[in-house]
Amino acid sequence: MTFVRTIPLLLLLLLLTTGFDWGFGPKDKCGEARSLLQGQSVRNSVERKKTESRIRELCPEGAAAHLLLARQLEQEGKQEEAVAEYRIVLKIDPALSEASRSLGQIYLQKGLTEEAAVELTKGLADGGDPRTQRALATIFADKKFYSLAAYHYVEALKSYPDDLSLHLGLAEAYRNMGARVDAETEYLKALSLEPKNTDALLGLSAVYDETNQPRKALEQAKKAADIEPKNLEIHGRIAELYEKGGELEQAAAEYRLAGRKQGEVAVSFLSRGDTFLVKKEYDKAIGEYRNALKGKPEWPEAQIKLAAAYQEAGRDEDAIKAYREALRLKATSGDLHYNLGLLYEKRGLTDEAVVEYRQALKFFPEHYETLLHLAEIYAARGTLPQAIEQYQTLIKLKGDNPTLYLQMARLQVLSKNVNEAAVFYEESLRLDGDNADAHRELASLQKKQGDTEGAAQHFRQVLRLKKDDSEARNSLIAIYVENKKYDEVITLLKDGVELNPGDANNHYKLGIIYEFRKEYPAAAEQYKRAVELNVDHAKAYNALGRVYMKSGRIAEAREALESARKIDPNLEETKVLLGNLRDELTSEPKKATRKRGRSAKRERRGKSPVKGTGKEKTSKKRKKKK
User: Cβ atoms within 10 A of the Cβ of 276, count?
Assistant: First the structure.
């Protein structure tokens, strides 16, 4: 009966403490308002206003009402106020995708592409719309994430199949991905929509040039020139194609029309080098950059790109020479100094590396990787104040990185700042509680400081993470022995035996604890196992002999001790124990000293000798006189 009564009570308690609204709570009204908002497809402005009024009436502080206000503010051109309202909407209801989409579009208009990409992507949760897909495609194309850009262009084209700009954007994405057949298809689709589109013609020309079809490439470029005869860029493109094909007179004529010198064909070599570098075809990229430098030997940009290609190809010596040449040409940038620093550090030239890293920081004072390399070099050199300074800066930049705190703790230990080290270890473990190294190092620090309880706690964490960590196990055993926690010692030693049953020392140590607790049979079993695993384990034989002596097994004790002595003649305890055994086992009694006088006669008569001192004899004489 008790059980039957309990069920309704529990159900009642559950209903009272959960968010169930029974159909009339405020959450239900807000849900209805949200449904009205999402189902809004009103053509008539009067009906739309009625729906909006109903939404506000149902849940005036809900996400739907705030979304209506955000729309209104956006239409009025009050972007900042609209942004604030959209944020409120998402705080109340993060799943309301329309708010994310609208917020993303505003961010995009303001040039905040990173924030826009985040919100627009969230806005796709309910399927999104073509406008969102287009915006994301544009963002990813600008950031050179071409595969993502292509995906969103394709999605947008499902709704706008005849949109020329979408086809051109998709074609560019495909071309940059190296999917030139797909790029050609999209350019041709664009030309079918607008036959005189010069962007499509030049894009198609580039595809043909990249696929070694020079005649087709030149044909498309000429078509573009016929449409826009005064376009200098198009004439420059035609000039490059002529020059590449060896038709130098035609190239010269086109260069004049473009207002450029013939040597500027080097630009095209540079562009092709960039394409090969992206594709990781380093030898081809190096060849193109060299060709570019033949046309313009004093070109710092080409020299830097050549150096980068050498570096990617693993040709470090050539890369260093090329970077130095770029510096001679007065080129300077954070990337140049950082990459040169990497090469110097790789070759062990740390002084030179430090100089370059410091130069790089002038361009990017908070460049994480540069700061990290400097910190590591200083730490390796033992220049602790400088290393600590760099790690402090790194922690300000990335305060959620447990590795930085761990490194800082180690530096503080080396600097003998023990208390500061402990603080950094604790913070590292707060961020990453499963770092065995941090637990071990903090435990060792606490043990040195006399905090054995704290040390034991962290050594236990090490064993939780790495059961076979013998260093942590031995340290924890030492702490337990010191604190006389022998049950814990036995548990740890047993675990060690189970983890590594073939280690003779594990059995020997376990035997010592059993012997200390006077559990001699258990101790003998572990000692025997130790000598079975290692027949030269003199200490185990000695201990086995000692236990046998304590157990009264004298013959076995002698055998074990003799084995120990044979293995290690210098083992002092073995000598003592064997000496004791000889005394106990000798069959010859000690020779008695011959007694003289009355005591001897008394013994012959069967009487006990008088015991005591001379004073006792004197007292007996006095009694006789009396």
Answer: 18
Domain residue ranges in the chain: 25-38+46-128, 399-484, 493-583
Q: Is 476 helix (H, G, I), strand (E, B) or coil?
A: helix
Residue 156: both structure tokens together: 């947008």
Q: Give me the pLDDT at residue 262, please.
A: 56
Q: Tell me if domain 25-38+46-128 and domain 493-583 are identical in fold.
A: yes
CB-count exposure of residue 314 (10 Å: 0-12, 13-18, 19+): exposed
Superfamily name with CATH number, domain 25-38+46-128: Tetratricopeptide repeat domain (1.25.40.10)
C-alpha radius of gyration, the chain, whole number: 45
Closest by Cα among 367, 333, 376 to 308? 333
Neighbour tally for 69: CB within 10 Å: 17
- Judged on CB neighbours under 10 Å (0-12, 13-18, 19+), 493 is buried
- In eight-state DSSP terms, residue 59 is -
pLDDT of residue 565: 92
Fold of 399-484: 1.25.40
Q: For domain 493-583, give its CATH number from 1.10.150.130, 1.10.287.1260, 1.25.40.10, 1.10.4030.10.
A: 1.25.40.10
* Cα of 605 vs its chain's centroid, Å: 98
pLDDT of residue 542: 93
Task: Please report, to the nearest 10 degrees, the dihedral formed by the alpha carbons of residues 152, 155, 161, 165 taken in order.
Answer: -10
d(CA 400, CA 428) in angstroms, rounded, equals 9
Q: What is the mean pLDDT of each run of 10 residues along the chain (626 residues)?
A: 36 33 52 72 67 78 78 79 81 79 80 81 76 83 84 85 88 86 90 90 89 88 90 86 74 80 64 88 90 78 91 93 90 89 93 93 90 93 91 92 93 92 93 92 92 91 88 88 86 86 90 88 92 92 92 91 92 82 54 47 43 41 42
Residue 618: predicted pLDDT? 41
Neighbours of 554 (CB within 10 A): 14
Q: What CA–CA distance (Å, rounded) separates 198 from 274? A: 23
Please give the pLDDT value at position 603.
Answer: 45
Instruction: List Cα–Cα distances, 270 to 291, 297, 301, 333, in angstroms.
Output: 8, 13, 9, 19
DSSP collapsed to 3 states, 546-558:
HHHHHCCCHHHHH
The residues near 90 (Cβ < 8 Å, ≥ 6 apart) are 96, 99, 100, 103
